[in-house]
Amino acid sequence: MRCPYCKSDNDRVIDSRASADGYAIRRRRVCSDCGRRYTTYERVETAPLRVVKKTGERLAFDRSKVLSGMVRACEKRPVTQEQLEAVTDRIERQCMEAFDKEVPSKVIGNLIMQELRMLDQVAYVRFASVYREFKDVSQFLEELKPMLEKRREGGHEAAEGTSG
Fold this sequence. Notes:
Blueprint: E1 11-18, E2 24-31, E3 37-43, E4 50-52, E5 58-60, H1 63-73, H2 81-98, E6 102-104, H3 105-119, H4 121-131, H5 137-162
Parallel strand pairs: 4-6
Antiparallel strand pairs: 1-2, 2-3, 4-5
Helix pairs in contact: 1-2, 1-4, 2-3, 3-4, 4-5
C-alpha cells in the first residue's frame, strides 16, 4: 500500500478490525519512511454495479463520488468523516442489495437525500439544491416547507405539553 503523503510503499499495519457494519476490514497503517498514519479499508470485490445517468450514459458505481458529494454538502457542518463513510457504506450496500447490475442515478440521489435529511438539515438542503437543480428561491422554499411544518408541529406540541 502506498502512503498517501510521501508515496512510499514501505508501511506496516498497526491495527486491524472489522468496520462497524461488518462488511469491510479497517486497517490503521503507519508509513515506515515518513511516520504518518492513515486508514485503509478492505472490502469484498463484487460484480461491478453500473449507474444509469439521466442521459442514458452508464458508468461504474463510484463510492468516492457519493462521498465527495456529501462532503461538499456538509462543509462547515458538525458532521464527521466517519459519519459520512458510514452513510456511504449504507448507500452502497442498499444499491448492491436492490439492484443486480444497474442502478438509476436518481435512486442514488434519493438515498443520499434521505440520509442527509436525518444527519444534517442544512447539508440536506445544500445537496438538494444542486441535485434537484433549483432555479429560484421558490423551489428552496418548497423543499423547506415540510421541514419547517414538522418543526412548528414539534414546537407547538411541546408548548401544549407545558401548559397543563
